[in-house]
Amino acid sequence: MDREFWHRKWAINEIGFHARAANPLMVAHIGRLELPPGSRVFVPLCGKSLDLHWLLSEGFRVAGAELSQIAVDQLFADLGLTPEVHQAGELLHYRARNIDIFVGDIFCLDGETLGPVDAVYDRAAFVALPQAMRARYATHLTQLARRAPQLLICYQYDQSLMDGPPFSIGDDEVRQRYGHAYALTLLTKADVAGGFKGRFPAMEAVWLLQ
Ligand SMILES: C[S@@+](CC[C@H](N)C(=O)[O-])C[C@H]1O[C@@H](n2cnc3c(N)ncnc32)[C@H](O)[C@@H]1O
C-alpha cells in the first residue's frame, strides 16, 4: 500500500472504510484508558473518521495524522471548523480549537511536531498497512507517542481469502509488535456481524496497551 494507493482511494471517493457512526468498540472501551477530560488523543491514519467528532464531543483534544488532504479538508468541513494551516516540516499542520491534524506521511511526523499525547486510538490504521510496513509503523508510533497508552482495534479473518486492506492481524502479531514496549490486555474479541461485507467470517479484537 503505497501513498498513491491511498491518494487514489480518496480522489475517487472509494472509502468503504469510512464508518457512518462513531466506532461502537471505541465508545465501549475508551474508558479503560482512564483519561481525564481535556486529554489529548492521537489518532494515526485518521481519515475523516467520525470517531474524531465523538472524541471532541466527549471533551477530549485530538491530534491526527492523515496522508490525504482531501480527507482532512472534508473532516474540517464536516466539523464546521475553519483551520489555520501551517507548514510543519514535510507536513501541513491543520489547527483549530482542540484539534491538530498533520497532513502527510506519518513516517515524516516527529514527536516534537506532534506534541505531547495522553493516549493513542488506532482503528483501521495498523490493519491498513501490509505486513512489510507494520513493524516500522509500530516502532514509529510507539516512539511518536512516547509509549502513551493505546486502544487498538484489530481485524481478524482468514488472510488467504483476501489480500487486504484491511489486513488480518493475529494476537501473536500484536504481541510481537508491541509486547516489548507495553503490557497488553485483550479486552474483547467478537464476530463481526455479517462477516466482512457478507463475504466471509471476520472478528474484531480490542487491545489495551499500557
Ligand atoms: C483504512 S483508512 C482508515 C481511516 C480512519 N482511521 C477510519 O477509521 O476511518 C486508512 C487511512 O490511512 C491513510 N494513510 C495511509 N498511509 C498513510 C501514511 N503513511 N501516513 C498517513 N496516513 C496514511 C489513508 O489515506 C487512509 O485515510
UniProtKB/TrEMBL annotation:
E.C. no: 2.1.1.67
Residues the record lists as binding S-adenosyl-L-methionine: 10, 45, 66, 123
Pfam families reported for this sequence: TPMT
Highest taxon above the source species: Bacteria
Entry GO MF terms: thiopurine S-methyltransferase activity
Keywords per UniProt: Cytoplasm, Methyltransferase, S-adenosyl-L-methionine, Transferase
One GO term (biological process): response to metal ion
PANTHER family found in the cross-reference section: THIOPURINE S-METHYLTRANSFERASE
Protein family per UniProt: Belongs to the class I-like SAM-binding methyltransferase superfamily. TPMT family.
Protein name: Thiopurine S-methyltransferase
Species of origin: Massilia violaceinigra
Taxonomic lineage of the native organism: Bacteria, Pseudomonadati, Pseudomonadota, Betaproteobacteria, Burkholderiales
Gene: tmpT
